[in-house]
Design brief:
Layout: E1 2-5, E2 8-11, E3 33-35, E4 44-46, E5 49-55, E6 73-75, E7 79-81, E8 84-86, E9 91-103, E10 107-117, E11 120-131, E12 137-149, E13 154-161, E14 166-178
Antiparallel strand pairs: 1-2, 3-4, 5-6, 5-14, 7-8, 8-13, 9-12, 9-14, 10-11, 10-13
Length: 179
């Protein structure tokens, strides 16, 4: 069906069943998304990449963090070996790391968390934690980065503190948002 919209001719499709693009057999695979590759370039079917893992157990002053749980989600690529995510498909990634620290009373400490690529920090946050309460206090920190990663890049997260606090739980998420 041809429609005119703001002096432009636009075509719309009403399809029930399989949609193929290019060659007759090119119908994508389950979970793939039809993606534009720019003006004049053929479109392609791309599977999204989503990875998320968390750490719940208390690790004290561990830096880098070890003992992660089994990944909750690992769709479309990347390998995970206890604390290191290896990129297997180039693109722009949204990386997020959240950490919760527990400080027994009374205590104070400096805290940092960071996202690292190939051993170098690409994003970090710092804070000072002062607990004057009678019981444990908790501090949540989050750091994120939108970055282009090529195949083989190694992504890790780190946290550290001066004294008195423990890493209570943390969560690491990486999503490819564009190619």
């Amino acid at each position: 069906e041809e429609v005119e919209l703001n002096n432009l001719t636009v075509n719309s499709l009403n399809i029930i069943g399989t949609l193929g693009v290019g060659e007759f057999q090119d119908v994508g695979t389950a979970g793939a998304v039809l993606t534009s590759n720019g003006i004049g370039a053929a479109v392609s079917w791309v599977k999204p990449i989503l990875f998320t893992v968390k750490k719940i157990t208390d690790t004290g002053t561990a830096n880098p963090i070890v003992g992660w749980q089994t990944p909750e989600i690992n769709v479309g690529g990347g390998t995970w070996v206890d604390g290191t995510y290896t990129v297997q498909s180039a693109g722009y990634y949204d990386i997020n790391f959240q950490a919760e620290f527990r400080a027994p009373a009374p205590s104070s400490t400096g805290i940092f968390i960071s996202i690292n690529v190939d051993g170098g920090r690409v994003s970090e946050a710092n804070n000072f934690f002062l607990n004057t309460a009678a019981g444990d206090e908790y501090l949540n920190m989050t750091v994120s980065k939108l970055i282009f990663l090529s195949i083989g890049k190694l992504v890790t997260v780190q946290c550290g503190q001066q004294t008195g606090t423990n890493l209570n739980n943390s969560h690491f998420k990486i999503i490819r948002v564009a190619i």
